[in-house]
Amino acid sequence: MIWRLVEDGSPGEWTIQGQIQQPAGSGPRHIAIVGAYPLCMHDQLLSFCTGDTLYTVHETASTLTAQRLPAAPNGTSTITTQLSTVPQNNLTDAVFAAAEILIPVPTTKFPKTYIYVSNRNVGTTVDPRGDTIAIFEALPNMGLQLVNQVYTGLQQVRGMEFGGEDDEFLVASGVVGTGGVLILKRVDGGAGLEEVVRNTDVLTRTTFLWGSW
Predict the structure, then answer these.
(1) Parallel, antiparallel, or unpaired for β 143-151 and 192-199?
(2) How many CA atoms lie within 13 A of 61 on its CB side?
(3) pLDDT at position 48, please?
(4) CA distance 104 to 193
C-alpha cells in the first residue's frame, strides 16, 4: 500500500494519516501525482487536462498504474490502467524490478505528457544493450500507452533526473556495471531519447541533483 502522511505538530514531525491500497505483492516503489500544477490552458498549449492522477511504478510487478488520487485519509479509487514496464526480450534468468518514475511538466516544446520509468534487470542474464527506460504517453481518462523502450547501455537503471531548459535532458546511471553516467536528449516531442554524451570515469550512481550554482 501507499501510506499517506501529514505533518504532526512541529515541522519535520509526521504521522500516518491513512493509506491507498495497491495490488497485493506489487511492491509500489515510487509515485508521481499529475494535476498538482495547472495542466488545463486556454491557448491550446497542452493536449488535455489530466486532473489529479496518481501514477505508481511497482517494483515487484514491474508495472505502471494510473488511478484517480482518492480523497484523504482513506478514500479508494480503481486502478484505471496497468501496463508492464518490461521490454520484450528472450533473456533467460532475467528478473526485472522497475525503479524510478519521472513526469516532466509539459511545455511549448514538449506539449504532451510522457512518463519515463527506469527498468532494472537484477537477474543473472543481462542484455548487452543494457536496461531500458520505458516511455509511456499519458492519455485522457487516465489511460496509458507504451510508446518506446530506450536501451541505455546501463545495468539496473535506478537514478535519473531531468534538467535543462524545458527539461530537455535526462541524466541517468545504473547501480552496477561499467555503463557510467549517461546524458540523453528528448526527441520526437518527448516520445524518444537520444544519447548525447557518456562518462565512464564514474561507473555507477544511484541519484542525481540537476541545477546551477
Answers:
(1) unpaired
(2) 18
(3) 42
(4) 14
Distances in Å between the Cα of 46 and the Cα atoms of 43, 50, 105, 152, 208 are: 8, 10, 10, 29, 28
pTM above 0.85? yes
Residue 128: predicted pLDDT: 94
DSSP-based three-state secondary structure for 79? strand
Left (φ > 0), alpha (ψ -120 to 50) or beta: where does 54 sit? Answer: beta
Domains belonging to the chain, first-starting first, are 21-199 (2.130.10.10)
Which positions ≥6 away from 108 have C-beta within 8 Å? Answer: 45, 166
What would the grid cell of residue 45 be?
498549449
Find out whether 32 and 101 touch, Cβ atoms under 8 Å: yes
Q: How far apart are CA 2 and CA 207, in angstroms?
A: 22
The cell for 145 is 500507452
What is the per-residue pLDDT across 1-55, written as a single tens digit (0 to 9) for each? 999 999 998 888 999 999 999 999 999 999 999 974 444 444 444 444 445 899 9
Residues 141-157 have a mean pLDDT of: 96
Q: CA 49, CA 113: separation in Å to the nearest integer?
A: 10
User: Beta-carbon neighbour count of residue 95 at 10 Å?
Assistant: 12
Q: What are phi and psi of 32, to 5 degrees?
A: -145, 140
